[in-house]
Fold this protein.
Amino acid sequence: MDLGLTDRVQNLVAQVRSMVDTEIAPLDEEYHAEVGKHPSGDRFQLTDRQLDILAELKGKAKERGLWNFWLTDSDKGHGLSTVEYAYLAEEMGKVHLAAEIFNCSAPDTGNMEVLERYGEAWMKERWLTRLLDGEIRSAYVMTEPGVASSDAAQLAFEARKDGDDWVLNGEKYWISGAGDPRCALYILMACTAPDAAKHSRHTMFVMDADTSGIEVLRPMHVFGQDDAPHGHMHLRFTDVRVPSKNIVLGEGRGFEVAQGRLGPGRIHHCMRSIGLAEKALELLCKRGLHREAFGKPLVELGANYDIIANARMEIEQARLLCLKAAWMMDTQGTRAAQPWISQVKVVAPLMSLKVVDEAMQLFGGTGISQDTPLWRMWTHLRTLRFADGPDAVHRRQVARAELRKYTNQ
Amino acid sequence: MDLGLTDRVQNLVAQVRSMVDTEIAPLDEEYHAEVGKHPSGDRFQLTDRQLDILAELKGKAKERGLWNFWLTDSDKGHGLSTVEYAYLAEEMGKVHLAAEIFNCSAPDTGNMEVLERYGEAWMKERWLTRLLDGEIRSAYVMTEPGVASSDAAQLAFEARKDGDDWVLNGEKYWISGAGDPRCALYILMACTAPDAAKHSRHTMFVMDADTSGIEVLRPMHVFGQDDAPHGHMHLRFTDVRVPSKNIVLGEGRGFEVAQGRLGPGRIHHCMRSIGLAEKALELLCKRGLHREAFGKPLVELGANYDIIANARMEIEQARLLCLKAAWMMDTQGTRAAQPWISQVKVVAPLMSLKVVDEAMQLFGGTGISQDTPLWRMWTHLRTLRFADGPDAVHRRQVARAELRKYTNQ
Amino acid sequence: MDLGLTDRVQNLVAQVRSMVDTEIAPLDEEYHAEVGKHPSGDRFQLTDRQLDILAELKGKAKERGLWNFWLTDSDKGHGLSTVEYAYLAEEMGKVHLAAEIFNCSAPDTGNMEVLERYGEAWMKERWLTRLLDGEIRSAYVMTEPGVASSDAAQLAFEARKDGDDWVLNGEKYWISGAGDPRCALYILMACTAPDAAKHSRHTMFVMDADTSGIEVLRPMHVFGQDDAPHGHMHLRFTDVRVPSKNIVLGEGRGFEVAQGRLGPGRIHHCMRSIGLAEKALELLCKRGLHREAFGKPLVELGANYDIIANARMEIEQARLLCLKAAWMMDTQGTRAAQPWISQVKVVAPLMSLKVVDEAMQLFGGTGISQDTPLWRMWTHLRTLRFADGPDAVHRRQVARAELRKYTNQ
Amino acid sequence: MDLGLTDRVQNLVAQVRSMVDTEIAPLDEEYHAEVGKHPSGDRFQLTDRQLDILAELKGKAKERGLWNFWLTDSDKGHGLSTVEYAYLAEEMGKVHLAAEIFNCSAPDTGNMEVLERYGEAWMKERWLTRLLDGEIRSAYVMTEPGVASSDAAQLAFEARKDGDDWVLNGEKYWISGAGDPRCALYILMACTAPDAAKHSRHTMFVMDADTSGIEVLRPMHVFGQDDAPHGHMHLRFTDVRVPSKNIVLGEGRGFEVAQGRLGPGRIHHCMRSIGLAEKALELLCKRGLHREAFGKPLVELGANYDIIANARMEIEQARLLCLKAAWMMDTQGTRAAQPWISQVKVVAPLMSLKVVDEAMQLFGGTGISQDTPLWRMWTHLRTLRFADGPDAVHRRQVARAELRKYTNQ
């Protein structure tokens, strides 16, 4: 169980870290400051400066071969293992824009995997190539208002067959990335057989994002932020027609696609969240060493030594758990790795939230203000406790796996 | 130690609760939706509709005598005790706009207390009457960039004597309420004797908010929100002249005024935060009863029963602690009540944050979106863990009080 | 809601505290050191010295009128309210032997309540008088091996009618106090109608402890201790005959008696556990002030200030919750007070365990050794998390009470 | 960073696990039941049956080559790495007697390391061979009453030079294993130069346990248990003479020896505690599946799924952290591994205590009684939070290591 940095990845990590620190971080703030400055006033249009920043940074990354790392176990990318990718994802997690620059950002990576693994040739040609090149972006269209996402079998958005087409009607929301004007592809789960067995009711469709009949009702807000231009959109589909050939894998096999998609995605989120926690702990330590009260640096006051020690211990443990889950995926497949993926999906965001919260507390008011990135880290991490399954569902999975050891005997 | 609802307050609580539920809550959302709709585009200008809403609601409250409850132990208001006020504050905490409607909102209450307790006649005439009538608002100008607020003796904003005037120079930030165009009064702490003994360095000034030389640099953001039109402003003072008579209580007595001001304010914050927690628990229970997954209402899944029970147990305890701190203030004065005030200042916001966080988690994505008030509750409560002293400083106070039992013997 | 020390109780508290500190505590250690020194070698026989200590101390208490405080709302004792008794119980909790000295110890208090409330005249005459006088002791015989006590309806110990007698067969264990040779009375719950409705299956019997056919199988150990001479015995009943007149309240009404018995008992346990927590915090503070490491008193190292502050905050809250539960019992009866009793039954032992654990940690090895009373406090408190219902069952009660607010509407 | 089971260890783990389960566990209970049955009545004498059990089991282990695994990186034992040993230690942790059977128990392993690494030839001949053969046992004599062990520089037990001898005077306590009549060797730290620099004051001596002038004052109790016949003895040294040649490594180098000794020992304790946690979780799951209340198995009630999942997640993480610390020791030495050793020294006992506590709670009264091994696990684990440095000291070490990243730059 080698969980370490291999030589080839050590080198890539160094390059990525350096590019994140010296080239991406300085432009990240400018990129976000541009939001809302499009002449149209539309926060979901990218300004010329935003497009330039993206083009410049992505160009550099591609040129240096720092691109599509997430394509694990594949002949297309670096052929990295998930363990190897973990170390890179951690670095990319430290700055908001970084993952996209290396073409490693959600939801594109998951969507590319769907196309790569289950897509037909024409789908790959139409969308996968451009996604791999970072030319377009994509969205994954699953969550519905009015349905507890933890129990996906309840999803009710309807697709009815009509000749060789399917006609889609209903609402979907929290569609991350659907705000971005570059988003060209939707991968959408619809209920095609409401009376079928629980896991055969749904079908996965691919379609152009500008298919007629799709309307953006509003951006969903995350702690008051619209996350423009990426966005988490609330969409309404009215009689949207999609040809049958746009079905992925086959009618009624939506769950199978969804499951295959989620494993790696969950790991990637966790890896990045560990990077965030490291960043937050670094900020905390530096602030604590340089800020004084009562004649002492803050680190020497109150329980700050314990806070720092606890943070370090929890980060180390979460990272190791994440690496083990990645190693399980690499060596035994997503299905066997499931209990470990669930474990780390609970552990990593909770841990990161705690570390960021402690950093905010040590910074005082500054820690929740625009003067540090901590608040944005926190709100982003908070969404991870529901995204791809709430904690409660993952804990349930872990407990069941544990109990099976004694009931299957 | 009577911590219960007295008869007269039971009646007032019923009136306040009813007005909050049926009259204020419905307009609260509309009020906030108006932010940014002023013709000037300035988020810190109130729209006509906002002014109407305030006038209408405040008018009703005043007419019904639901006004200035916070004036405890005074012949001006209802003559309530702090314990009695606690029950009212809890109700007012449940909806954002409510406290202002009853003229019980921070920082005005604290500022009015300063004027009432330490102010000279001309100060009362100029500002206190209008504040008590709810005609103007005010700000408390203390926090400085670059100084750990936990150690207020470090505050360095400078006031130098020049003839009969004082000349103020420096920056202050997180000045809550200073964004509101109705804010007419600043109560400001400045360093007048940097070389004096630790608690004699500072002096408290009162002044008109539009005194020449004061510039708003920017609003401080709380988790990305500017909290307009109230705002938490970053101000720069350049050669601002204030006459000597504007000093409160006396030169070098700033700390004394600040201490007197803070006790009740901290209690009020805690009381309102308990109201928020009650509101969040109510939302959690209702959602958990009506939303289903895996064929059961959410409350019957996972650890939700325990989550609900723990929330109830922590709310009950925090409320009782708050009431005891209030009772200590009522019967033994702010100074003797200090350790209890510190206790509840730590306990109540932490408890409320936990309850709101659990509610967000049960709601899933909806819980952090604009579709519930939970996110706003959370970000507001998060600020209370620094405001009026960070947790660490209050824990230190509590520990010292405890140890004194054994060292003073 | 007066939760304070009334004048009359203030006086009693002072007397009890003084007697505990100066008269009981010094003999408590000697009493426990005598265990196992009976000439027979039997740890469950009291030595002459033990009997002397008890006689001397109980005599003094009785003479001073410090006796049977727990008889709340009664014309026999002091006529104290439960709130008033709470303050006394806290003091008695601080030293192991204290509660018995004032004739306020479990399980006698609960058993006396059963007799007082539901017993017939002959029962009172035969047992109650002597219990009230502290001449005999008693046991409450409910728990069974093989049955989860949390669901008392499962209790299966059998009583069959045979003529005018009932014949009892089965095992009972964790029968606290049944080791004591002075234990003269058993109050026992048996299943008399296994097919009846859930809460009508059981009947409560009273009987002499030396009734023929009862055998002590072994003492149950608590963390390796037999708690001699009190003991928690495992008993076997073989064809034990009890006359019908020994039934309390009526056939099939065992649950009713048990419920009536448990409310006050739970509160008393909690009150005493708060006394233990206070004692542990006192030990912690004194040790921390006087022991040094790295040139500083321990309190100034690590997170000790926070540990002390948190302990104080949790003790205060738990005490207030306990007082509120007591007040609910006093003013609205045991049934209405149930959710509060459940709350404090969860809160107080958990809190006390935490405080004692922190004290042990600060003391290092000494904290778990015979050189401090902390280990015995901890093991005793640990049993309270199951005794009279495990935490999980009480949390469930609290959650249900909460949800009823929304489902009964 | 290979943290996995290597092939050779996989095989050893299987053998050890099988021997623990089928041969040691059944005799472990009998061995402990024998305590106190020596004809002399002395609990610190081994009975014939105890000696037989040890001889039989140790004989089998030795014969099968399951012996002295802890000799990592050595040509004498299996030449295992610390990572490899970790997996074996985990198995040995599950049953109390197991570690001794494989000659892998504390404090012998640490003492053997001292002799192996720092001992002179005559010391090895006299003691090491017999220790490696499991013929004798040993004690490590460091802790003193009256001194906070966390700051070892304070240790004051005196050794004065007198001719070619040193004369030792003072008390030592918590000397684990010194109760065992087979204990033949003491490794003792004494203060030889009270005025020297902090880390040069102490010297390490080796001596026969029966050296004249050593008196056992009493066994220290752990939660009321004397842990006979192993014991944690309180010793008094009166004019005990030890020749100069008995000094290890050199005068004033006691700290160096102590530091070298502690690293691996701490890891071993943690490894075994993880085994205990696994055992406790197994007991919890089995009980929860087979015991019913309210018509359901306990696992389906309350928060038990979450409790199980949390236990699994924390065990996994602690194990990985332990393995990483072991790997650091293997690849970079004890000194470089120090922060990781400190981390796991805090994490593993806390985690194990939590899991055992949850298991006790689910078992109810049975969980703290003699009918399950849980209480003994708990009290044993509780000592680990002070042994070899209290949590607070290790957290301090971890925090300092973290802060050095920013202050050394």
